[in-house]
Amino acid sequence: MKLPMPDITSPTSFFTDAEAFQVHRADATRYQLVIDAYADGALHEDNVWQALAGLGFAVDEIEWHINHPGKRMAHNFSL
Q: For residue 63, what are the domain limits?
């Protein structure tokens, strides 16, 4: 099960240390690259499945991304 990603712009959001914040930013960057590449036709659906599963997304969330190329789920990786 994927834990919800924190909205780092929220005044109640915090990270335990700088390393935790950097990991979040790296994952957010990978997420954005995957959904952009899929929307542009540069990634095959199988690659999207693998990449998003590696980031901890659930099956229903990956299916949502496959069916909505280029769109971001509102609760994921707010930067």
A: 41-79
